[in-house]
Amino acid sequence: MEWYKKAADQGFAQAQYAYGRGLETGFGLEKSLAEAAVWYGKAAEQGNADAMYALGTMYKEGSGVRKNDSEMLKWYARAAEKGDLRVMYDLGDMYYQGKGVKKSLAQAAKWYLKAAENGDIRAQLNIGLMYSLGEGVGLDYSNAAKWFRMAAGQDDPNAQYNYGLLLALGRGVRKNPAEAAIWFRKAADRGQAGAQFSLGELYAEGTGVKKSPEEALKLFNQSARQGNANAQFRLGLIYDQGINVKENRSEANKWYKLAAEQGHTGAQYNLARNFATGSGVKQSDREAFAWYEKAAKEGNIEAQYYLGMSYADGRGVIRDARSAAFWIGKAAEHGMAQARYRLGMFYSLGLGVKQDYARAVKIWEETAKDGDDMSLFFLAYMYETGSGVERDPAKARKLYGEAAKKGNVYARQVVRLLGE
Q: CB–CB of 296/265 below 8 Å?
């Protein structure tokens, strides 16, 4: 180290970095982090990229210097501008996560892209993800496919999976399920859970591969056991409906619960329905209500409707007409015919909302156009009694007849009484 020290004293940047490295590691010198930082600083000021990276890391960790995020960022950025690949990726991560810097997806994309262009596989995957999501850059599936393909070719399983997804969906590349299956298989064999699930879907449907329920089940199991919520939900459906396996509601509920606990709304809803009916599990209105509520709050339309009905009937919760109307109204807003018809009932009877015959009529007119027989029946009643509309017996008869033709038993009784 003596010669490095002499050269360092004469201002040679590489020697200053090497001497600082010796002081940091204790190789050939007594270890001194504070002195190491001084020599790294001298070399960094002269443009030595290794010294810039080392000094930035010391400021990041508070090693030999007081921890200082702004100094860390300054030296990392300078090293990156000099072409240091380690820093480019690290800067991208820092900006993406907001670690030590103000979060900036645009800056994250900038540095991931620089690292990707210099061959960093991790950066190629991340910039591909950002293009596929439109994060920090414009949504661009073609660029996403380019970077996923580049990293996939270097055997990155996550990139292989994401490239396979674009091929399966035809986004940024020509749709090619067969090629998607190849990339899914590469990733699945490396244990990538998403790829195992997606490949299972292809085998289940016979898309891009020869249909094989057995292979699909095997892949779903592999993925589900790694915690993939979509695969867990799919296994739940398979056992719930007996799809190429013996129906087993208890097994179905096991998988539904695992997916539901991860926030899968379809699993939450199905688990709630099974608790409500006692299918493969001890019947419990309270458990059903709890799972309906979780799914409903995340936007599951069916769960919103049945949560509303739980409030209306007082099943698993204290009866609350206002809450019932609220949740049924949410489902109705999303176009659920059953919810729209039921909301009309609430306005007709004034349950949880201010009674409004005219609004009930308007709702039923809309759902009647979609062929809902109960809406036709109650709309006929409104015209028969003049509730919310001008009384029109002829129109009422016509609507009763239409409801009867659709199999509505109440309308058929009315039609018989009317002698038609």
A: no
Torsion on CA atoms 290, 292, 296, 300, rounded to nearest 10 = 150
Pairwise CA distance, residues 230 & 353, whole Å: 38
Query: What are φ and ψ of residue 314, in 5° steps?
Result: 70, 40
* Residue 341, H or E segment: helix 337-349
Helix, strand, or coil (residue 155): coil
DSSP state string for 187-232: HHHTT-HHHHHHHHHHHHHTSSS---HHHHHHHHHHHHHTT-HHHH
Contacts (Cβ under 8 Å, ≥6 apart) of 232? 224, 255, 256, 258, 259, 262, 264, 267
Tell me 351's DSSP state: S
Please report, for the chain, the start and end positions of each structural domain, with discontinuous segments joined by +. Answer: 372-420
The answer to whether 257 and 263 have CB atoms below 8 angstroms apart is: no
3-state secondary structure of 160: helix
**Hey, is 96 helix, strand or coil?**
helix
Q: pLDDT, tens digit, for every residue of 232-249?
A: 999 999 999 999 999 999
Long-range contacts formed by 24-31: CB under 8 A, 24+ apart: 24/54, 24/64, 28/1, 29/1
Judged against a pLDDT cut of 80, whether residue 3 lies above it is answered with no
Contact between 338 and 304 under an 8 Å Cβ cutoff? The reply is: no
Q: Yes or no: say if 268 and 291 are a contact pair by the CB < 8 Å rule.
A: yes
Among positive and negative, which fits the CA dihedral 148, 149, 151, 157? positive
Cα–Cα distance between 290 and 287 in angstroms, integer? Answer: 5
- C-alpha pair distances (Å), 333 with each of 214, 286, 352, 371: 40, 26, 17, 18
CA dihedral of residues 87, 91, 93, 95 (deg, nearest 10): 180
Residue 69's pLDDT band (cuts 50, 70, 90): confident
Tokens at 394, concatenated:
């002829």
